[in-house]
């Protein structure tokens, strides 16, 4: 928001002291998140104040009211439904204060920097690049949409083998940007330097791509990838018999779907790709997260039962209204049996409505029932599957075992499967694997993993 500085125009020294970024950690339960308040001044000495949550990948959050005195700063945000109240120290280097949100009052001390707050991402490449970079448009004629993307390839030689990068769940841009990281930018840069052309696109309905993301399913995304293959076949610099797919997380399910339907996919790389159904993964994921949060065995069993009943109700009721009524009844029953319970039972009515909206979306309904085995068993091209041992979103052991069983069942012996010790869902070397750790780690993707991917693809396309 912009707020008149009133008397501050008479005291430029004071204005200069509070401009910049004020940042500090806030503890919410077992999680620790960084909050940043940005203060700048326009040419008329009006304050411009925004809030960033870099650990959640959210920047430029609007503020609704800001009050500044010589001693204190009060910042309110309707978007966050939160308020910060802090007192300046005598040197204007620290704000000692509290953050109020959702009935909670949490201590939050902020430290001043005149430079804009930024996270360290040492692996992120900066131009000029030692390779060609081209903005491209991929047309999915059947869906009547255009995917905006970037094609990178070596400057000399060719035609080159190529790989199409497929993003994970949620609306993602071509760099798969999340938590202050750009994994696909780092991966594309690494592979291109190794002589492999790379195509990465914004998801449909996101970034510069057209279409609607909210109504799309995994099967729709598979048609987008097929369109990308057709596009690469028209590029004279690309070796059309050596086009492969590399999918991360959900992209690791999209890739086998495409490869099961086409014989012209040269290879697959599955990065934290699922081998179990969406329902199985969701139940495992919630159990791991809840256990880390300190739930007892009884609470874990109760939460698992509620989730299982909810997923059954969604699968049984194709009508969203009927499904919503049934799910709300399940919540009422669970809360009655476990008043003050943890896990899903903690959700209030507003959160339950959002949960139901998410669980009855076309994407979720499809993800819940799709079985990767149906597609992996029909994949006959070379396949590399990597999962991190600390991955809590797609647990490594169970999913890698399921992937291997499906390949063996389908008669595919040309595969390599490996669990990466100490790696999380993003293939960062981590301590816990928790989601709130992603942004705090400077590394975007383990150099070991980057090398494994490049070396394996290099051998397959020789």
Description:
By secondary structure, the protein is of the alpha+beta class. The chain is globular. Strands 1, 2, 3, 4, 5, 6, 7, 8, 9 and 10 form a ten-stranded antiparallel beta sheet that branches. The chain has an eight-stranded mixed beta sheet with strand order 11-12-14-13-15-16-17-18, with helices on both faces. 32% of the residues lie in helices and 28% in strands. Strand 8 (82-88) and strand 9 form a beta hairpin. The chain starts with a strand and ends with a helix. It folds into three domains: 2-113, Lipocalin (Beta Barrel); 132-277 and 370-460, Alpha/Beta hydrolase fold, catalytic domain (Rossmann fold, 3-Layer(aba) Sandwich), CATH 3.40.50; 279-366, no CATH class.
What keywords describe this structure?
18 strands; eight-stranded mixed sheet; alpha+beta; disordered N terminus; 12 helices; 28% strand; Lipocalin; single chain; Rossmann fold; 462 residues; 3 domains
Short description:
The protein has 12 helices and 18 strands. With 462 residues, the chain is α+β, with helices and mostly antiparallel strands.
Write the layout of secondary structure elements.
Layout: E1 2-4, H1 12-18, E2 20-28, E3 31-41, E4 46-53, E5 58-62, E6 65-68, E7 72-77, E8 82-88, E9 94-101, E10 104-113, E11 132-140, E12 145-153, E13 160-166, H2 183-193, E14 197-201, H3 218-232, E15 238-248, H4 251-261, E16 268-271, H5 278-292, H6 297-316, H7 320-337, H8 349-359, H9 362-369, H10 372-376, E17 383-388, H11 396-410, E18 415-420, H12 447-460
Helix pairs in contact: 3-4, 5-6, 6-7, 7-8
